[in-house]
Amino acid sequence: MIKIRSLVKKYGDHIAVDNLTLDINENEVFGLLGSNGAGKTTIIHMLATLLKPSSGSATVNGYDIVCQPAKVRSSIGIVFQAPSSDDMLTGYENLQLHSMLYSIPRHTRKQRIDEVLKLVGLTERRHDQVKTYSGGMRRRLEIARGLLHKPKVMFLDEPTLGLDPASRETMWKYIQRLVREEKMTVILTTHYMEEADILCDRIGIIDKGRIVALDTPKGLKAGLGGDIIRIKTRYNPDKISQLDFVHKVEQSNGFLVLSVNNAKRDLPMLLRHVEAEIVEFASPTLNDVFIHLTGRKMKEEQPEGGFAEKYAKYD
Amino acid sequence: MQNTISMQDHLAKVYALWLREFKVFLRERSRLVASTFTPILWLFVIGSGLGSAAPSELPPGVDYQQFIFPGIVSMSIIFTSVFYGSYIIWDRKFDFLKSVMVAPVSRTTVFVGKTLGGMTNSLIQAAILLAIGVAMGIPFTPLSLAQAAAVVLLMSFGLTSLGLALGSYMYSLEGFQMIVSFVVFPLFFLSGALFPLDNLPEWLSVLTAADPATYGVDALRNLMLGTGTYGVELDLAILVGYTAALGAFGVYSFGRMKAV
Ligand SMILES: Nc1ncnc2c1ncn2[C@@H]1O[C@H](COP(=O)(O)OP(=O)(O)O)[C@@H](O)[C@H]1O
Ligand SMILES: [Mg+2]
User: Fold this and answer.
1) For the whole model, what pTM was predicted?
2) Between the CA atoms of A147, A150, A153 and A154, what dihedral angle is there, to the nearest 10 degrees?
3) Which of A7, A9, A23 is nearest to A187 (CA)?
4) What residues flank ligand 1, with Cβ below 6 Å?
5) How many beta carbons lie within 10 A of that of residue B61, not counting itself?
6) Confidence of residue A221 (pLDDT cuts 50, 70, 90)
7) Which residues of B touch A50 (CB under 8 A)?
8) Of A45, A47, A31, A61, whose CA–CA distance to A188 is shortest?
């Protein structure tokens, strides 16, 4: 559905998107996961024909993003990182405007608007001015707008950025619903691990404009090689890495992070060799994958709380 | 056949964009009040104040307040139209522009929709002023009123194009206000809105002759008071020329405007 070949975007000397090659399949939910400034929005803008690539090429729904922008535009819906509806108009009027811009025939216009309003749960508030909407409602209106012309591809750029946890979960529900009911390819960007994990069929982890890993959420986690044990100890990490069941040792915030095949089996063995103050274990999360691949934590805030507690829900 | 469909499609999109401008205009009535107040103030304060020391060159049978009336109508058009360019910056700031640019809509369509919005705005303000003019005893006929409206539309098309073109290159409202002040005030002061064009010093008459607004003011003065410098035909011909050039500048500028 989307083919990206050696796509590059430079801003002066700064390379925002670095030689990106990627295929996205029909009807999959594809996640671009990366921290702020990784280049996610730049990729989306190029695919949506709003930004000219510095080099390379891409097709969306079979149309070239540089040579056939009008065809690409008719094929896609997009929800921008920041809401873009007109505050002074009502939700309904915004949808009316865009249904005309997308040449939706007059006799199906009203019906389609009602459909998408219902899909995002805004029917009740449709005649209120957008300036009276909450952040979550605005996002949902943007989704409704993106759906109006039944696009083949939907781009969601950080669809839950800045929403409180409750609205975020509501948003996930709506996104899952649209994937179910509208049958389309969805490309979503996020810097929330949990979001990518829950919503996406495949995830591309992007760092400094490059894809550093590409797999299903399960595959990515499995790629780390089994489970993780975190210990706080004064023992020498080099000694620990010599233990034969320990694949790898990394340091993070005063803890040692050990990769093992099976934490439950290996932990007692470990404790026979090593004296540790704090011991935690878990299956790897996307966050661990990210740290492993980039050597950094996600820049943006991560939920606080104990390690085991934080990750227990993925076990 | 293909052509008629695409033309209809284009017009439907222009209509959609215009309708949005118009609805916003109707909902922000304070905008209208504020921008109509200034010309009325000029008309009555400057008109009466300077009128008591009336320039001797005024055409016979016309008092100063009546004399500047077409100039004040033009003033309202100049300010409203050029400043309308700031709305393209607002649209960009609030990402609305992005949502339009990502739709299958040509830049020209976006430009025309926006310009028609600005023209509507100017026309409504001019209508209010024209009503005041009728009350002031300006001898309108239905024909001259219709002709005046046509001149208003022509002028505001050109000047809205100019404002939008300038706005399309800018990202900050402050910058726009500043640049536009250098455009708007000369356009207004050099247009002969406040003084007769005969017997000006050489350097000034060169500048007034270059100002597109001069021909709008003169056309309106011809239509409303039956007196002027160039004659309506010449005014209109020059105005059409300027307007076409400014419209082309607007289309060009929107074409090369950055989407994000
Ligand atoms: N218009 C621009 N001019 C210069 N640099 C830009 C511009 N837009 C984005 N960048 C830079 O490109 C990089 C990628 O940005 P972006 O695509 O917005 O990242 P993300 O969406 O992943 O947070 C960042 O380093 C950002 O500073
Ligand atoms: Mg972004």
Assistant:
1) 0.86
2) 0
3) A23
4) A 11, 14, 16, 34, 36-42
5) 9
6) confident
7) 98, 101-102, 259-260
8) A31
